Amino acid sequence: MGTGNLLWILESDFLGERFERRSQRREAENPDALLQILVIRDGQETNYQFTSLPKQFIMKNIFLTSLLIFIASSTFAQDRLTGKNFATRAEVIAQNGMVATSQPLATQVGLDILKKGGSAIDAAIAANAALGLMEPTGCGMGGDLFAIVWDAKTQKLYGLNASGRSPKSLTIDYFKEKGLSKIPSHGPIPVSVPGAVDGWFELHGKFGKLPMKEILAPAIKYANEGFPLTQYIAALWGRSVPFYLSKGFPNVKETYTINGSGKVPEKGDVFKNKYLANTLSKIAQGGRDAYYKGDIAKTIASFIKEQGGYLSFEDFASHKSEWVDPVSTNYRGYDVWELPPNGQGITALQMLNILEHYDFSKIPFGSDEHIHYFVEAKKLAFEDRAKYYADMDFFDVPVGQLISKEYGKERQALITEQAGKYEAGEISAGETIYLTTADKDGNMVSFIQSNYRGMGSGMVAPGVGFMLQDRGELFSLVEGQANTYEPGKRPFHTIIPAFITKDGKPYMSFGVMGGDFQPMGHCEIVMNMIDFGMNIQEAGDAPRIDHAGSSTPMGKPADGTGMIKLEDGFDYETIRQLMIRGHKVGYGLGSYGGYQAIKYDAAQGVYYGASESRKDGQAAGY
Predict the structure, then answer these.
(1) Tell me, what's the pLDDT at 76?
(2) Confidence of residue 72 (pLDDT cuts 50, 70, 90)
């Protein structure tokens, strides 16, 4: 049989989450074609034939070619009268307040708090508590949080690092004795102190208005009475819970299946978590000490010890969050703010300092130039991230130098027109949820919270109703590095809130979920709005660029030049040009994060809200 009779079939389910390829001996419609590809999407067939591509390229890259054609053949589903064709909806506009979260009921919880006279912080805490129930696949009281708050009274930004520390009784010798080169991803060992609840009370103590009993009441009510699962969260729930059950982790079935029956809830099923309702009620009554110095901490510590872990009651009792000063860089007249390490926020600032040297008014969105320069900036910044980012109580991170304009120019000079491989500069010295709120007084909150690896470690103490995080996995076990494991140390963190000011006034609160993708997502949002003129909804809906394969803070070196992963919406000509530049190009599965944003227009006196369509979220105002 000749090459012209080789037919590749590339099939996707309705979510675009499954690819199947198979060769078949079928009669070709065009016997002269070197390659035929039948793309089946949503049951619709499209036949592609190639008669002029180099035969050697086709035979060596047959599946890649098929995949690229599949991506290039994708079309946007919307046909809107106004705006970009990839926009899924218009911005939400309101005068008195705005809430944007990744779950519509949680958005409504936050909005109700605002209507009762609560502050933006009150609304953020209420929404986060509800999300711990409704979206445990990404967050909960067993995790950490970070926040940036614009305070209208003092006209300044405040940053909170509410991440927890490693067990004080666990040393690196444990890992040496076990012969481990990395910290396990699940089980009791990667569990660090969960900082989220302390973060709630720190934020509330400085910026709250309503009592915590009233703030937590909606989540308690939903936990007792139930709520229906949304589509995206149900899909993650259906993948995660069976995994934890297969590992035999205690209390998962009782906590995350319907009435403890073992049946995993599906879309539309009403789910209750009375254990969580009870825990939230204890916190509402007894405050943060009910969590860190009471029965909750004792129950968790005892359970972790039984499971062979090291997190102790003393680790809980000594925990505290840290107020920090956000840091910024100016990008074409806009000040973009992030939190300093142990998070990865300044990666976005480093990237912007590199990218500002290119004139994107002459470089179209989605062009190979745009993607190439973006990816090269990412690779440069991520090498520094791997070398320098860590808990600043343990390592003197040279933040000022890393985010300086001079250093950005020095790094940008390394970029050529071809894909490059870089090292860190020489300087002396996962699943997540993101939400944002704004109130009638002009206060705005950028708030992110996570357990890491979706639901977390698999460790669910009896009767508490939530899973503990596994952030400890993000330490390095290579001695002598900035992020090397030490007792009582905060691990490198991926979750980062962001904020933009202009001329010293609030402009936009935003964040993008998605592990390592987050600083790339932040840069893409900033560029989409400032360089490419999109509104805040379009900026989130636009097709995204991801890149994998850089060095990591866990001690893993770069994999060559890595791989670019592109969403639907980039044409084949662009992909081909990227390959000519020496890039590997692929397609990611759910690696492009999720986004919420609120922009304030002082001239109009209104808030603009956005929540993208990749998740189940909603922006709503009043």
Answers:
(1) 53
(2) very low
Please state, rounded to an integer, the average pLDDT across all residues of the chain: 89
* Mean pLDDT calculated for residue range 446-472: 96
- Helices then strands, each counted (H, E), the chain: 20, 23
337 torsion bin: left (phi>0), alpha (psi -120 to 50), beta (else): beta
Res. 403: pLDDT tops 80: yes
3-state secondary structure 574-589: HHHHHHHCCCEEECCC
Find out whether 396 and 494 touch, Cβ atoms under 8 Å.
no
Print burial letters for 47-85: b (CB count within 10 Å at least 16), e (below 16). ebebeeeeeeebeeebebbbbbbbbbbbeeeeeeeebbe
Q: H or E stretch including 25?
A: strand 19-25
Structure token digits, residue 551: 């060095």
Which range among 18-32, 108-122, 309-323, 362-376 shows the weakest confidence by mean pLDDT?
A: 18-32
Domain ranges for the chain, please list them. 3-72, 105-133+168-319+456-474, 324-432+494-621
Alpha helices in 318-456 (DSSP H): 346-355, 368-388, 399-402, 405-412
CB atoms within 10 A of CB 290: 18
Residue type at 424 in one-letter notation:
A
Model confidence at 430, pLDDT cuts 50, 70, 90, reads low
- In angstroms, the CA 360 to CA 364 distance is 7
SS (H, E, C) 130-193: HHHHHCCCCCCCCCEEEEEEEECCCCEEEEEEECCCCCCCCCHHHHHHHCCCCCCCCCCCCCCC
What is the gyration radius of the CA atoms in the chain, in angstroms?
Answer: 24
Cβ(226)–Cβ(258) below 8 Å: no
Q: What is the three-class DSSP state of 601? A: strand
- Here the tokens at position 343 are 């998070």
Which DSSP symbol is given to 390?
S
Catalytic residue among 101, 257, 432, 501, which? 432
Q: What angle do CA 50, 53, 57 make, to 5 degrees?
A: 120
- CA-CA distance, 67 to 586, in Å (whole number)? 8
State the average pLDDT over residues 234-249: 96
What span, in angstroms and rounded, lies between the C-alpha atoms of 608 and 536?
Answer: 8
Tens of pLDDT, residues 208-235 = 999 999 999 999 999 999 999 999 999 9
- Cα separation, 594 vs 435, in Å, equals 10
Q: Residue 389 and residue 483: Cα distance in Å, rounded?
A: 7
- Name the CATH superfamily, with its identifier, for domain 324-432+494-621: Gamma-glutamyltranspeptidase, small (S) subunit (3.60.20.40)
- Both tokens assigned to 56: 């050697």
Question: What confidence tens digit (pLDDT) does each residue in 520-538 have?
Answer: 999 999 999 999 999 999 9
pLDDT of residue 2: 35
Residue type, 506: P
**Do residues 136 and 160 touch, judged by C-beta distance below 8 A?**
no
Active site residue 432: yes
Residue (of 501, 523, 510) closest to 355 by Cα position: 523
d(CA 312, CA 99): 37
Q: Which two tokens stand for residue 205?
A: 């103590």
Output the DSSP codes for 60-94. Answer: HSHHHHHHHHHHHT---S---SSS-TT--SPPEEE
